[in-house]
Amino acid sequence: MPVPAAPAPAPAPPPAVAPIPVPIPLPIPGIGGPPGGVFGPPGGAYGPHGGGEGPRGGGGFPGFPGGGGGHGGNTRGISGNGGDGGAGGTGITGHGGAGGDAGNSGPVQGTAGRGGNGGIGGGGAGGTGGTGASGGAGGTGGQAVTNGFGNADGGRGGDGGAATSGVGGTGGDGGLAAIASTFSAATATGGDGGNGGTGTPGGAGGDGGTASTQGIGAVQQGAQGSHG
Q1: Alpha carbons 122 and 181: distance in angstroms, whole number
Q2: CB-based burial of residue 215 (10 Å sphere; 0-12 exposed, 13-18 middle, 19+ buried)?
Q3: Nearest Cα residue to 192 out of 175, 179, 204, 169
Q4: Where exactly are the structural domains of the chain?
């Protein structure tokens, strides 16, 4: 009687293939600081609470400017306060970011937000105060302090916001400027004060920023802002 044939051997598995390594890209920092959001959170339609404060601008990559502050939120009703503008980001050996503009208040009642302060570095400009029943104050200009490897220019103060029925916003003060080196011939110039907003009465102008040096360079104080 015939003997049954042995079953065919199973095919050998294919050789293992080593995985190909995929390089993981490293994050590259942005040249400038990230800006603040376009607007802060909106306020309620009515009542005492108005727009939210705008976010702060991000710090700048070394040698580049800080990001600008975000815009303060507007009030969506006839009353309520506007949100403050976000502060400008700090410049790390670069220019400070500008402060964000403030949100507007309701036209019948409420105070508009204050403009954000300019970032420290080469001074960033202060943000403009919002408009409303009472004008918002302008933000203070950013400070500029160097070790003598470049001129120091304080940021300009933001202008005060216009008022529809009340006092105009006060202009922001100019940023101070300082040279912190006894061997430097760099100049220091304080930032000009912002102008007061129109209203009844108009707002006062901001003070000019002070300037100082430990070296031999020229020093110039910032100019006073005009009355609204």
Answers
A1: 16
A2: middle
A3: 175
A4: 121-227
Distances (CA, A) of 156 to 16, 90, 128, 206: 68, 16, 11, 10
- From the list 188, 190, 183, the residue with the least C-alpha distance to 218 is 188
CA-CA distance, 157 to 99, in Å (whole number)? 10
Q: pLDDT tens per residue, the chain (228 residues)?
A: 566 666 666 676 666 665 555 444 433 333 344 444 433 444 333 334 455 555 666 655 556 666 777 777 776 666 677 777 777 777 665 667 777 777 777 777 767 667 667 666 677 787 887 888 888 888 888 888 877 777 888 888 889 988 888 889 999 898 888 888 888 888 888 999 999 999 989 999 999 999 988 888 889 999 999 998
User: What distances in angstroms separate CA 192 from CA 71, 86, 97, 123, 206, one per listed residue?
Assistant: 22, 20, 17, 11, 8
Q: What is the Cα–Cα distance from 170 to 168, expressed in whole angstroms?
A: 7
Contacts of 62 (CB under 8 A, 6+ apart): 92, 93, 94
Please give the DSSP secondary-structure letter assigned to residue 121.
T
d(CA 215, CA 118): 26
Look at residue 122 and give its three-state secondary structure. strand
Reported as half-sphere exposure (CB side, CA atoms, 13 A), residue 135 has a value of 30
Pair of tokens at residue 41: 């959170």
For 93: left if phi > 0, alpha if psi spans -120 to 50, otherwise beta; the answer is left
Please state, in angstroms and rounded to a whole number, the distance separating the CA atoms of residues 62 and 144: 15
